[in-house]
Amino acid sequence: MPQVMSRLISQVVPPVAVRVVARARRSAAVGAAVLLAAHTSPSAAHAASAPEPLPRGDRLTVTVQGVGDGADGRYEVRCRPSGGSHPDAAGACAALERNTRWGRDAFAPVPRDALCTMQYGGPATARVTGTWAGRPVDATYDRANGCAIARWDRLVPLLPEAGRRVGAQGT
User: In the chain, where are the structural domains located?
Assistant: First the structure.
């Protein structure tokens, strides 16, 4: 019976189309067999029930200078779960999460046209490099004016608390 159908089809349908249909049937049969084998194997069943691994991209290096009080240095921060050499990794991750918004860069510099108060927050500087939320990070921080101070303070404790000191301009 299949041979009769094949002859009828070959008389009505061009031979190229018959080969395409036959090839598609074979491919579908092979694909179904592979899916069935994968679905019934114990390792596939275990993999389907195991939770997906968390992204490994949230790693930052923070280098701080000029803060004093033992806060200067280089720290590693990992989030989800929090860890690394940072003295408050959980707090640093919380500060990052608090400042992460869809469509906005948590590490964006102060806009060039921003109007900032002329106050000096001290000689502290910091550089943050690595990856956050799947994006590369290379940001620098200082406390040269009110906007820069606010930008720094938003990321405390990722960046250390760096208040004004006696002798700083305006104190």
Answer: 2-49, 59-154
> Amino acid identity, residue 121?
G
| DSSP-derived 3-state class of residue 12 | helix
Euclidean distance between CA atoms 27 and 37, whole angstroms? 15
Evaluate if pTM is beyond 0.70. no
Domain 59-154 in this protein, CATH class: alpha beta
- Which residues have CB under 8 Å from 134's CB, separation 6+? 55, 57
- What Å distances lie between residue 73 and 47, 90, 129, CA to CA? 42, 18, 14
Candidate ranges 40-44, 55-59, 128-132; pick with highest mean pLDDT? 128-132
Cβ distance 84 to 75 under 8 Å?
yes
Got the DSSP string for 24-56? HHHHHHHHHHHHHHHHHSHHHHHHHHSPPPPPS
For residue 138, the Cα-to-chain-centroid distance in whole angstroms is 14
Are 93 and 132 in contact, with CB atoms under 8 Å apart? no
For residue range 34-55, what is the model confidence (pLDDT) as tens digits?
444 444 444 444 444 444 444 4
